[in-house]
Amino acid sequence: MPAARPALFLDRDGVINVDQSYVFSREGFEWVDGAKAVIRRFNDMGWWVFVVTNQSGIARGYYTEEQMQALHDWMSAELGATGAHIDRIYHCPFHEDGVIPRYTRDSYDRKPKPGMLIRAMTDFPVIKERSFLIGDKQADLDAAKAAGVRGFLFTGGDLAAFADWALADMGEGR
Question: pTM (2 decimals)?
């Protein structure tokens, strides 16, 4: 098993990509400024990088898990071309108001609940005290707090600059 290290948790829509409501294809995907750079920087620093994303569009019938996975595969290839990678993407396809029966339910993984973060910290040796999440909604911050990690609210701009600020606030200055 690899050595324990801190983790950067990233929400997807609104943090990695511009939130254009239910993004499920590369045609609708636009990288947030600095997103690729921040993922590479944290890879180079030896941190885990995880994406934790609610994907209620699956439960709502807007797109399938296969379409979402194809987008995530494309994202991974785009990152790989820059020398960056995401260690794992965790997603929650469930929503109580869904129309697809197998996805229509509550889930411990759906933020603001901490399931996806806790799963990542179970699947990988994470130093929780040095880890943090960047999200664009209060539900993201609530999930981070419930999982025992710090959360930072990203409201737009350059994600790399924001992550540098968050890292300094954590006492991890570069």
Answer: 0.95
